[in-house]
Amino acid sequence: MSTFDNPFDDKRSLNRAGCACGRHISQTDHDRDAGTQMQCVPVENEEKRYEGVVASAVMRQIFPQDVARRAFLKSVGASTALAALSQFFPLKTATEVFAQGGPIEKKDLKVGFIPITCATPIIMAKPMGFYEKHGLNVDVIKTAGWAVIRDKTINKEYDAAHMLSPMPLAISLGVGSNPIPYTVPAIENINGQAITLAMKHKDKRDPKSWKGFKFAVPFDFSMHNYLLRYYLAEHGLDPDQDVQIRAVPPPEMVANLRADNIDGFLGPDPMNQRAVYDGVGFIHMLSKEMWDGHPCCAFAASKEFITQTPNTYAALLKSIIDATAFAAKPENRKQIAAAIAPANYINQPEIVLEQILTGTYADGLGNVLTDAKRVDFDPFPWESFAIWIMTQMKRWGQIKGEVDYKAVAQQVYLATDTAKLMKEVGLTPPTTTTKSIVVMGKTFDPEKPADYVNSFAIKRT
Amino acid sequence: MNIPLGLRAGLLSILVLALFLGAWHLATRGTGVTQQMSPEYAKLMGLTATQGKSAMPGPVDVGIKLWEHLKRPFYDNGPNDKGLGIQLGYSIARVGLGYLLAVLVAVPLGFLIGMSPLMSRALDPFIQVLKPISPLAWMPLALYTIKDSGLSAIFVIFICSLWPMLINTAFGVAAVRKEWLNVARTLEVGAFRRAYTVILPAAAPTILTGMRISIGIAWLVIVAAEMLVGGTGIGYFVWNEWNNLSIVNVIIAILLIGLVGMLLDQVLARLTRMVTFPE
Q1: Are B202 and B176 contacting, i.e. CB atoms less than 8 angstroms apart?
Q2: Substitution target from A258, A278, A357 for chain B, most B beta carbons within 10 A
Q3: DSSP states of B44-63
Q4: Please, which residues bridge with residue A438 across strands?
Q5: Is the CB of B249 inside 8 Å of chain A's CB atoms?
Q6: Which residue segments constitute the domains of chain A, with CATH numbers given?
């Protein structure tokens, strides 16, 4: 049987041949589950979550033989078994020990972030006590831009940082900086970006009429850049010739839109909603409508940090995964908006953040729209994400020559590590590390990245 | 008219200020409701969109906010949100440190260059090339090599405030009157004693003028440097409030930057007057 099913359930199939991973009775069931997102198991509270994990481990130790355990469970029932177990094994203490993990090498940490809603899990973990819960004293430090956050993390002023999900790939590949082994132990948010246009373009909703527009994206190595290019190219515009795309730090986007320096941007929230709030722009479309479930920002750490202080790393990552799971629940979103709005964190009007996080928002054209998945949170760093990003780097000429997509993806996007820690905090990680992706109706097969790059009409290769 | 000049100048200053504030107030009045929108929608929108409030704050808004800041200048809400007093303190400390280092290097080096025509000509090309480099151009290099953003900011202050002092010291030392040096020579005064008792007092006014220019430059640089590296300081405050598109706070910061810059300049001006001598 596999590690993550419930040993207190006597009806589970023991037949390993049933499916590839052993969790399902048949291959059909496995396939149905494999494609889906990670599922959060609803647990009453965190204590219970750990208790479940610890109890499972103890149960397996006492009855290593599945058949013997089954017989015992059948005869006394699961709850009695658990009660009996706690009689002679101090489950409570074991749970506490487990929750703390090994001794933490370094308690005081600095984590850098850029003040955008993508960083929600990193930021909220501070005011809402997720770092404290895992025994860490973390200062979250606001940083001025992506280049600075990269340099400060490389300089070890920050122990870990919020980055755009393509950045660790670029750093590891040595594109735009010296190659330094970097990793993405967790994705922070999925979706949550939008194309915002200036009010004067409110009748130009067809991208074909955007020739000559000036667009802003936050950074060259960003999902925003790749998504905007993809979107324009799908509508027949060459992003390098028909329009201008420049890298503009998020806070300057709204100011530039007001000053008429740019016609629009594909930017992170809160900037899209802020443009609407100030009456200078409207939301043309959410990035979710291009690719539902795309990654945006990532929680990044250097390989060195992971190998030198593994327990600190595990505790930090557990805090982030915990916070991400909390943020994924719609009922918590309002509370989160209030926690991260002050000047110490994102520094935006609460109503703006609330619209973004709850997904009930003004679009700038007089309508109130609702899309609960406008931004969502899911920590699992799919290797397919990394491969897709590298295909776009290749497509737009940011990386030249041959790329070993799979190897780089595995080294940088630590899907296996994350899965292990997700299990430790009682979440159910997906059983695979790759999945197929659909971007604007076109399926991407992570097994064939080179074919994918060649399939585009507009490209720079 | 018997009104003294000082009083007249003061009255004129107040008049200019009043005119400026009045024009500012008139220019930033709201335009009233701009368009009809459902109340449900309006609730989600900012005042600029719903009430036609000008995006540029008026003098009254700035005054109210300034009062709020002045009431509690030293609050500390965590690493990213501190009172204006604390932010200014950080900035002044950084400027002080970088500037002090620059003084320690520039004055002795300036002496050397001023007293030795050989060194003067040999080092001149380097000084001429390094002098006009913008502080922000140093920043990426500093961050990359020093690997510490706090030290990088101080380094940038140092490198930018170095040149005016260096050049002025060298010039002041070289321009000491030949007669005084000849008198010293006839009295067989040694090189160190000559530098200390003859050249230093003679060149002091020029050196201090260089230092006064430098402190102004240092204060200009700190705001830009802190906007880039972030964390603390008045430059970070400007950046953080810009992030929130809070023009009110940006204006307040501009006002304070001006005031502190003026104070620093006045201190150096007073020192200059102390060492000036009539010939």
Answers
A1: yes
A2: A278
A3: TS-HHHHH---SSPPHHHHH
A4: A443
A5: no
A6: 16-100 (no CATH), 108-191+295-454 (3.40.190.10), 194-288 (3.40.190.10)
**Cβ of B54 under 8 Å from any chain A Cβ?**
no
Upper half-sphere CA count for residue A277 (Cβ side, 13 Å): 23
Tell me which of A414 and B214 has the higher pLDDT. B214
Residues of chain B with C-beta less than 8 angstroms from the C-beta of A342 = 77, 81
User: ipTM score here?
Assistant: 0.70
What is the domain partition of chain B in residue ranges? 95-229
Contact A279 B46 (CB under 8 A): yes
Q: What is the pLDDT of residues B255-269, one digit of tens each?
A: 999 999 999 999 999
Give the span between the Cα atoms of A155 and A168, in whole angstroms: 15
Asked whether the beta carbons of A419 and A450 are under 8 A apart, the reply is no
A202 touches chain B (CB under 8 A): no
Interface test with B, best of A109, A111, A140, A151 (most B CBs within 10 A): A151
Mean local confidence (pLDDT), A155-169: 84
Would you say A389 and A403 are in contact if contact means Cβ atoms under 8 Å apart? no
SS3 B31: coil
Mutate to test the interface with A, among B34, B232, B237, B244 (most CBs of A within 10 A): B244
* Interchain CB distance below 8 Å, A142 and B80: yes
| CATH C-level class of B95-229 | mainly alpha
Q: Does B40 touch chain A (CB under 8 A)?
A: yes
What confidence score (pLDDT) does residue A46 get? 54
Helix then strand then coil, % of chain A, to nearest 5? 45, 15, 40
Alpha carbon distance B18, B4 (integer Å): 22
DSSP per-residue letters across A331-373 = GGHHHHHHHH-STTTT-S-HHHHHHHHHSEEE-SSS-EEE-TT
In a structure prediction context, what are the per-residue pLDDT tens digits for chain B, which is 279 residues long?
577 888 899 999 999 999 999 888 888 776 665 666 777 777 777 776 666 666 678 888 888 888 888 888 777 777 777 788 888 888 899 999 999 999 999 988 988 888 888 888 888 888 888 888 887 788 878 877 887 778 888 898 899 889 889 988 988 888 888 888 888 888 888 878 887 888 888 888 888 999 999 999 899 888 888 887 767 888 888 888 887 778 888 898 899 999 999 999 999 999 888 888 776
Query: Pairing mode, if any, of strands A137-142 and A437-439?
Result: unpaired
